[in-house]
Amino acid sequence: MLKATTRHGFWCECWTQRLDGRRPPALFGSFDAYSAVEANNWVATILRTISPALDTAASQAAWTRLQNDRIDTRRALLRREPWTVSVTHVRTRITRTGRPAMFLPLAHRQGRELPACADDFKPRTTD
């Protein structure tokens, strides 16, 4: 029998949104952080990675967030509060979000026999 234990962490996402309103926001990527430090480092790493490609104003905003606002982000994470970091480049807003989450463990299927119904589901064939 599986022991279902949950683990506290943070669900982090990166969204992009065109400011002209022609397209809805798009999920660019996500990350499951198991500690406040991991979530905070994810934000910092992403901001450092994209800042050279941003225009001057957006790059300066990213570095300001890294230097001045990182402590506030860490405090929010330690209080298990949701947080958001946004940078606008030309006509695109790039937003990182994080929120407290409970993660359930996934069962490993290696070395275990699958239930009998597992072979009942076959992919559709197109004729």
Short synopsis of the structure:
The protein has two helices and four strands; from the N terminus they run ββααββ.
Question: Could you explain the architecture of this structure?
Answer:
- The chain is an alpha+beta fold and 127 residues long.
- It is built from 2 helices and 4 strands.
- It has helices at residues 36-50, 56-78; strands spanning 7-18, 26-33, 83-89, 92-103.
- A 4-stranded antiparallel sheet has the order 2-1-4-3.
- Strand 1 (7-18) and strand 2 form a beta hairpin.
- The radius of gyration is 20 Å and the shape is flat.
- It starts with 6 loop residues before the first strand and ends in a 24-residue tail after the last strand.
- The mean pLDDT is 81.
SSE blueprint:
Elements: E1 7-18, E2 26-33, H1 36-50, H2 56-78, E3 83-89, E4 92-103
Antiparallel strand pairs: 1-2, 1-4, 3-4
Helix pairs in contact: 1-2
